Amino acid sequence: MAAFQLLFLLMVSCVVASARPSRQIPPCHIVQMDVICRDLSLRSAPDNLPRGVQMLDLSLNQVQNLSQRTLAYHTSFHRLNLQSNRIHFIQPGLFQNMSDLKVLDLSKNHLSVFGFSKINVGPLTAVESLDLSSNGLYTGMSDYFLADSPLLTNLSLNSNSITKIGQHTFKGSLSLKKISLHNNVILEIEDGAFDSLKNLTELDLSKNSITCIRDFNLHRLKVFNLSQNSMELFCSVDSRAAYELQTLDLSKNKMLYFPSLPQNNVLRYLDVSRNLLGNLSKGLDTPLNDLMYLDLSYNRLTNVSESFFTLMGSLEVLNVSNNCIGSFSVTTGAVLRSVRTVHLGYNSLRSLTVGADALPSLERLYLQGNDLATLDHGVFQRLPKLRQLQLQGNGLKICASERNRRTGDGCVSFSYIPNLQFLDISENNLPTLPADAFAETPLRLLDVSRNPGLDMDQDALSGLDRSLVHLLVRENNISRLDTHLSALRSLKHVDLSGNQLTSLPQWNKESSIESLNLQSNNLVTLEDGNMLGLKRSLKTLYMGSNPLSCCRNLGFVHMVQSSALDVPDLPSVTCVYDDASAPVNIGAVSAEACRAANTSSYIIAAVLALIGLAALLALLVKCCRSRKRKHSRGYRA
Ligand SMILES: *[C@@H]1O[C@H](CO)[C@@H](O)[C@H](O)[C@H]1NC(C)=O
Ligand SMILES: *[C@@H]1O[C@H](CO)[C@@H](O)[C@H](O)[C@H]1NC(C)=O
Ligand SMILES: *[C@@H]1O[C@H](CO)[C@@H](O)[C@H](O)[C@H]1NC(C)=O
Ligand SMILES: *[C@@H]1O[C@H](CO)[C@@H](O)[C@H](O)[C@H]1NC(C)=O
Ligand SMILES: *[C@@H]1O[C@H](CO)[C@@H](O)[C@H](O)[C@H]1NC(C)=O
Ligand SMILES: *[C@@H]1O[C@H](CO)[C@@H](O)[C@H](O)[C@H]1NC(C)=O
Ligand SMILES: *[C@@H]1O[C@H](CO)[C@@H](O)[C@H](O)[C@H]1NC(C)=O
Ligand SMILES: *[C@@H]1O[C@H](CO)[C@@H](O)[C@H](O)[C@H]1NC(C)=O
Ligand SMILES: *[C@@H]1O[C@H](CO)[C@@H](O)[C@H](O)[C@H]1NC(C)=O
C-alpha cells in the first residue's frame, strides 16, 4: 500500500513536470527589448525571448557551447553579454547574420580551448566592441576572432597569455581605435604590427614584459600605456612628422634615461614615476610645449636643474617627490611659469631657492619629509598664488610677525602670504609658535602637531579670527594651551588629542566649534562653566582615555546620556567615582551614585565631627573638675 502510494506520487510529479514547458522561462528581468538573465545557472538563453530582443545579458551562467540554439535562434541582438560562462566552443559563422550586433562581451570564458581547435569564428559583421579578456588565449589565438571584423573599433585582450604581437594580428580589423592588452606576457612586437591601423588612438600595453621601444612611429596614437613593463629605453623615430600622442605612461619600468620623445609632439601627460632615472643633467633637446603633467617621482634623481624645464612652457603639475634631490632652485619667472603644483616631498632637500618673479602660478607646494632647517625667511611670501603648503617632517623655525622679526636667525615667515589657506608644519621640532606668526595670512587649516613641547604664544593665532576653520595640535606633549582661541570665530574643528592637558583653553559663547578631540589627555574635569561656551555649537566630542571624575562632570554626563552630543569614542570614555574606585563608562554614570557617595561622606564627616565634639567636651569637663579640685585644695590649704 505504502509502496503504491509512493509510485503514484512519483508518477503525478512526472506528469506535472512534463506538463510545464520543457524549458520554462526563468526569472529573467525584461525591460522593453532588454533581457537580463544574470547568474541563473543557465546553459542557454530561455526559448521565449521577446521578438526583436536587442540586449541579452547572459553573464555569470553555465553556457558551454555558444550556438544559434544557445541564443534561441535570435539574430536581432545589439548587445550580447556572455561574460563569466564556460564557453569553449562557438558555432562558426554564428555572428555573421547578426547585422546589428555592436557590443560582444565574451570575457572570462574558456576560449583558449576554441583557439586550439584552430577554427575561425567567422565574420563579426557589425561588431564594434569585442571583449576577449581573461580567456587564457595564447599568441596567435586572437587571429581566429579578428580575421574578419571590419567594423571593430574597441578590442580588449586583457589578462590572457599572449607573448607576441605578430605583424598580421590585426590585418582583419583595420578600424581598430582602441586596443587593450593589459596583463599579458608580451615580450615582442613585430615591426609594423600596428602600422596598418590608421585609426588607432589608444594602446594599452601595461603589465607586460616589454623591454624597449626603439622606433616609436605611431603618429596617430593619442594614449600609450606602457606602465608595469621592463622598459629600459623609449626612442622615437627621428623625423619631423607630427605625432598626436597626448598621454604616455611609462611608470613602473626600468628606465635609466628620460625617454626620447618625438620632436614634433603635442604630449600633455607624461608619467615616468617608479623608474631608475638618476640624472637629468643632459638637458632636454625636445620641446614639450604642451606638456601639462610630468611625474618623475620614485626615481633616483639627485639633481634637477631648472634648465631642464625650459622647454616645458605649459607645465602645470610637476612631481619629483621620493627622489634624492638635495637642492631645488627656480631663479627666474622664465621657467615653470604656469606650474600650479610642485611636489618635492620625501627628498633630501636642504635648500630651496625661489627667485623674485619665479613660480608666479604656484598654488600647491609639497615639501614634506625633507631636511629643510633654514630658508630665506621670505621665500613663501614671494609666491602670490600659494594656497597650500606641506612642510611636515622638516626642521624649520617660525619667525614672529614682520614687525618684531630679528633678521638672520634662520626662521621662516608665514605672515603676509596673501592666499595661503592650508599649512601643515607638524613634526618640525618647532620650539615656539610666536605671537602674530600668521598675520595677514588667511589660513583655513593649521597643523602644528607632533612638535613636542611646542610653546604657543597667547597671540600665536591672532589675525586668523575670520579664516581659521581647522586647528590641529596633536601629540605635542603639552600640559596647557594658553593661546587665545575664543576670538577665532570661524574655528569649527579642533584636535588637541594626545597631549597632557589638565585644563581646557578658554572659549566664550561666540565659539562655533563643532568638533573637538580631547582624546588621551590628563583631564579630570571639563569645567562646566567653560564647556557651556561650546554647548551651542559642539556636535562631536572625542574624550576617550582621560582620567575623568564621574561626579565632577555631571553636566557632561548629562549631555552624553541625553544624546545632545555625539561621542564617537564613547566605549573608551571612562571616569572614576573616587580615587579608589574602578573606572566606569561615562554612559553608566548616575547622579544618584554621586549623591549617595556624597551622602555617605556627609555621614562620615558628621560622625567624625560628633566624636571630635564629644572628645572636646570630655576634655573640658575634665579640665573644670581639676580646677575645682585645685580650688578646693586651696581651700583646704
Ligand atoms: C555545439 O552545439 C552544436 C549545435 O547544438 C553541435 O552541433 C556541436 O557538436 C556542439 N559542439 C560541441 C563542441 O559541443
Ligand atoms: C545567415 O543568413 C543566410 C541567408 O539569410 C542563411 O542562409 C544562413 O544559414 C544564415 N546563417 C546563420 C549562421 O544563421
Ligand atoms: C571598450 O571596451 C571596454 C571593455 O571591453 C569597455 O570598458 C570600454 O568602455 C570600451 N570603450 C569604448 C570607447 O567603447
Ligand atoms: C578611420 O576613421 C575615419 C573617420 O572616423 C573613417 O572615415 C575611416 O573609415 C576609418 N578607417 C577605417 C580603416 O576604419
Ligand atoms: C596605465 O595602466 C595602468 C595599469 O592598468 C593604470 O593603472 C594607469 O592608470 C594607466 N595609465 C593611464 C594614463 O591611463
Ligand atoms: C649624469 O649623466 C651624464 C651623462 O649622461 C654623466 O656624464 C654624469 O656623470 C652623470 N651624473 C651623475 C651625477 O650621475
Ligand atoms: C645640479 O646641476 C646643475 C646643472 O647641471 C649644477 O650647476 C649644480 O651644481 C648641480 N648641483 C648638484 C648639487 O649636483
Ligand atoms: C605625483 O604628484 C601628483 C600631484 O600631487 C599626484 O597627483 C600624483 O599621484 C603623484 N604621483 C605618484 C606616483 O604618487
Ligand atoms: C613629555 O613631557 C614630559 C615633561 O612634561 C617629559 O618628561 C617627557 O619626556 C615628554 N615626552 C616626550 C615624548 O617628549
> How far is it from the N-terminal to the C-terminal residue, by CA?
135 Å
- How many DSSP E strands? 36
CATH architecture of the domain at 30-197: Alpha-Beta Horseshoe
Q: CATH topology of the domain at 30-197, anyone?
A: Leucine-rich repeat, LRR (right-handed beta-alpha superhelix)
Which parts are unreliable, with pLDDT below 50 for 5 consecutive residues or more?
1-24, 630-637
| Helix/sheet category | alpha/beta
How many helices does DSSP assign? 6
How much helical structure, as a percent, in the residues? 10-25%
| Shape, per Cα inertia axes | flat
The CATH superfamily of the domain at 30-197 turns out to be Ribonuclease Inhibitor
Bound molecules: 2-acetamido-2-deoxy-beta-D-glucopyranose
CATH class of the domain at 30-197: Alpha Beta
- Strand proportion: 15-25%
Average predicted confidence as pLDDT: 89
The largest sheet is:
23 strands, mixed
Radius of gyration: 39 Å
Topology:
Blueprint: H1 2-19, E1 29-31, E2 34-36, E3 55-57, E4 65-66, E5 79-81, E6 89-90, E7 103-105, H2 111-116, E8 129-131, H3 143-146, E9 154-156, E10 164-165, E11 178-180, E12 188-189, E13 202-204, E14 212-216, E15 223-225, E16 233-236, E17 247-249, E18 269-271, E19 293-295, E20 317-319, E21 327-330, E22 341-343, E23 351-354, E24 364-366, E25 388-390, E26 422-424, E27 432-433, E28 445-447, E29 455-456, E30 470-472, E31 493-495, E32 515-517, H4 528-535, E33 540-542, E34 548-549, H5 554-561, E35 574-576, E36 584-585, H6 591-636
Parallel strand pairs: 2-3, 3-5, 4-6, 5-7, 7-8, 8-9, 9-11, 10-12, 11-13, 13-15, 14-16, 15-17, 17-18, 18-19, 19-20, 20-22, 21-23, 22-24, 24-25, 25-26, 26-28, 27-29, 28-30, 30-31, 31-32, 32-33, 34-35
Antiparallel strand pairs: 1-2, 35-36
